[in-house]
Every structure is written in C-alpha cells, then in structure tokens.
Amino acid sequence: MLRTMKITLTPQQKLQLEQMHDIERDSRVCDRIKAVLLASEGWSQTMISQALCIHESTVARHLSDYVLSEKLKPENGGSQSKLSATQTMHLIEHLTEKTYSHTHQIVTYVKETFGLDYTVSGMNKWLHHNGFSYKQPKGVPHKFDEAQQQAFIEAYEALKASCDKDESIVFIDAVHPTLSTKISHGWIRTGQDKVIETTGNRSRLNIIGALNLSDIGATIVHNYESINSESIVRFFCELRKSYPLAHKLHIILDGAGYHRSDLGRVGHWLRHNPYPATPLQFRA
User: Fold this and answer.
1) pLDDT band at 269 (very low <50, low <70, confident <90, very high)
2) Which of 22, 91, 106, 261 lies 20 to 30 angstroms, CA to CA, from 166?
3) The domain 146-177+201-281: what is its CATH number?
4) Residue-range domain boundaries for the chain
5) pTM of the shown model
6) Sign of the CA dihedral running 150, 156, 160, 164
C-alpha cells in the first residue's frame, strides 16, 4: 500500500482551488484538484482513488506533483501553464477586478508580477482555458448609487404593502425619441452597392407617460411640443381625470429639473388643480 501523503492547505488556498475547479474544463485537472482537496481533509490515497475512479498510484503522483511544484496540469494534452496554482488564482482574481483591453497588457502584467514570459497567442489560450472571453462590459448609469437604489427598493416595497384598494402607484417619465432612417445590414451582391433613401429631416417626439404596474392597460401617454414644467402640470391634469376623485395617487418621478421646479412640483399643482380635495403624493 502506498504511503498517505499529508497535505495542509490554508482556508484561502482551499478557496482558490475550489474556484479553479469551478471554471476548469479539463477533467484531468479537476481530478488533480479534487485529489489535493480531499487529501487536505484527511482522506487516504485509497479513499481518493475509489472516489475519483482512478488508480491509487495516479493519486500519489497527483499529490506529489502538487507538493513539489503546485502542478495541476497533465504533461500531455496541450501546453502546460507556466503559472502555478497559486499564481493562476492570483491572476484570475486580478483579471476579475481589472479589465484589460488588449492581451499584451496582461502579458506585461504577468511578466512584471511573476517573471514569466507569455506570447500573446499563449496568453489568449490561457484566458480561454480559464473561463475568460473577449466581450464588452455592461454599462451602468454614471450616477448609479447602490445604497440609494436599495433604499428606494425598500421604500417602494413598503409603499406597495401599505396601499389600499383606493390607492395606486404611478410611475411617470418622459422620453424624446427621434424618427429617422436607420441603415442596417443585409445580404448584398459583392462589389455592388444598394441605395436606401433616408429621411430629409429628423422628427423628434416629446412623450410623457404614466404607468400603473397593477393596470398596464391603463397606461396614459401624451405628446407635447416640449417637455418642461408646464407640460408636466398639464399631464398631471390628464392623469387626474383618469382616476376617481377620491382615489389617491402615489406618483414616482425621477430627478429631472422640470420635476423639481416650482411650477412642476406636485404641491404647487395641488393648490391650483380643479380637484383641490384630491390627495396626491409626490416622490422623486
């Protein structure tokens, strides 16, 4: 019987190996990682070989490779990574936090950090092998504040829970679409051009809409020459006509200037609208 090899891993090392296992696509590498993790939990080589359905001598070789050089890649079946397991996880964490536009920048980082030389093609293979792909990041609003967003969600959920049957929550927003010819792609004979007539000018619309998520069919939409405080107040009047007199409306708006001006404030509108007794709340 082969002697059981003792392997001690820190919690961080275990986490790194588990993360590497999650993204690894080579089952042979996964077996090596599992062997190391199980050995660190006190499993014997016999138990590991039975669990992984591999020979006990193979388990011993996997563990020895890791103890001597942190090797987790097989000798055959593609080029062996120059990075050790610890270095690999370090680079994965770094690339998860920082996005590089060009592979040669990553090659430079690896050279400066680990003293290892990679070609651009070699690094591309490493990136694909370790679960990275070249794609655009997803944009978020430049003023995005996660804490404020969470606070709004909590306030909104509380408002929904407190609303009676004679109350509604209405979201109001304005959009400014422009109507113009958009030239896309299509299959055209090579060497020939296909002409599409474009519009002579662009038609800009200024639309205000009110959406009640409990009654999508009752969505109210109006077009105005421009969006300003006056058009907002006019829209409030149209909105008020669409609900019973005693119905309370909770209006949710964004922070646009025409919502925050003196004329556009709901409080001002309440003092001058035809139904002064109608309760209405403003939230922005």
Assistant:
1) low
2) 261
3) 3.30.420.10
4) 11-69, 85-130, 146-177+201-281
5) 0.46
6) positive
